[in-house]
Design brief:
alpha/beta; binds iron/sulfur cluster; binds adenosine-5'-triphosphate; 12 helices; 4-stranded antiparallel beta sheet; binds magnesium ion; Rossmann fold
Length: 328
């Protein structure tokens, strides 16, 4: 569609040796629309981070992307060399990761790190970049920014470090922001503030956000579209209302029934789904959710999963989707 800013098609990524390795991302497709937020959700190990890293060209050997396309402005990012990718990373596509401490250089002041992002991509003086770094810190809510720019990461609290990282991510006004569990390491009260900040900045810049999370409360609050991942594959995609009100995949239903808002703003697991995701070294044949699926039949074990279109904006990779939806 014309408003797609990022169009990921059939992405496939493997880790480890040819024999004994695993396919962490197995034919993943989704789209990020202009000015909108797509959430990528799923349990730990489902391949969310590997998907983001594959998009950004950040899979370290012996891991590698073995297939698919990542179309950005009509260009397949997977075909670019490292120099061209570096131009895009940090400038056209900003990134925010879970743990700001490991993403920041402990030996460099916060202001200098943001300034470095700017000078890496724009032809401006160091002094100008420093000045902009202070402005950016102010913009993301760091009080007394001129003074705090000279501080080192360990002087900052977790929430402030995440603000600094967001300042670096938006420094070159990217078209896309990829945020991988941006608030998981933070206190609940700080989480809400950081999400609000991300949301406000995105609106202000008209940027598109790819938000990776396992928190369905965050999805409900932030996302326009949602892709649910299970064992390296997208099992359901829909706009956020449809996903919450008319989920078509038994796994999505199980995820939704697992959480209940107990009133403190946190989603608390109520009925964790019985069993565990498959070992990706030896994935089960057919539908990968079959070992845990309450609706599994013998035919599911030999079914080659495919996206079944329920509507123009809703796809489900379950051969029994019609019955699931009939269930109400
Ligand atoms: N560098 C690596 N080498 C080998 N295997 C890896 C590597 N990185 C990830 N994996 C494996 O790939 C699979 C997907 O991992 P990934 O980190 O993408 O999951 P995730 O959905 O981001 O999980 P989480 O919610 O815990 O962050 C997992 O089985 C993981 O063990
Ligand atoms: S294909 Fe079968 S096992 Fe897989 S989710 Fe659907 S009903 Fe369950
Ligand atoms: Mg992850």
């Amino acid at each position: 569609m014309s408003d797609a800013v990022l169009d990921v098609r059939g992405l496939r990524t493997r880790f480890g040796p040819e024999k004994g390795g695993l396919v962490a991302v197995d034919g993943v497709s989704f789209m990020l629309r202009r000015g909108r937020t797509t959430a990528l959700v799923g349990e730990s190990g489902s391949g969310k981070s590997a998907t983001a890293q594959s998009i950004m060209g950040l899979i370290d050997p012996p891991g590698r992307v073995t297939g698919g396309q990542v179309l950005y402005r009509g260009q397949d990012l997977l075909t670019l060399d490292e120099a061209a990718m570096r131009e895009i990373r940090g400038a056209r596509i900003g990134m925010v990761f879970q743990d700001p401490l490991t993403s920041l250089n402990p030996a460099l002041s916060i202001g200098s790190q943001i300034a470095e992002t700017i000078t890496a991509h724009e032809d401006v003086s160091h002094a100008e970049a420093q000045r902009r770094a202070v402005q950016l810190l102010e913009h993301v809510g760091v009080a007394d920014a001129a003074r705090r720019a000279a501080d080192y990461p360990h002087h900052f609290s977790g929430g402030m470090r995440q603000r600094a990282l967001i300042a670096a991510a938006i420094a070159c006004r990217p078209e896309i922001i990829i945020a991988d569990e941006p608030t998981t390491a933070l206190d609940v009260t700080v989480q809400a503030k950081i999400l609000r900040l991300l949301h406000d900045l995105q609106q202000e810049m008209g940027a598109s956000l790819l938000l990776i999370t396992h928190d369905l409360g965050v999805v409900a609050a932030m996302a326009d579209e949602v892709a649910v991942m299970y064992a390296g594959r997208v099992v359901e995609q829909a706009d956020v209302d449809t996903l919450f009100h008319r989920p078509g995949h038994p796994y999505t239903r199980a995820l939704l029934s697992c959480v209940m808002d107990i009133g403190d703003g946190r989603d608390t697991p109520l009925n964790p789904i019985a069993g565990a995701p498959p070992d990706l070294r030896t994935p089960p044949p057919g539908c990968r959710f079959a070992p845990r699926c309450p609706m599994a039949e013998a035919a599911c074990l030999s079914w080659q999963p495919q996206d079944i279109a329920v509507s123009a904006t809703h796809t489900v990779a379950c051969r029994r989707v019609a019955e699931v939806l009939q269930d109400g």
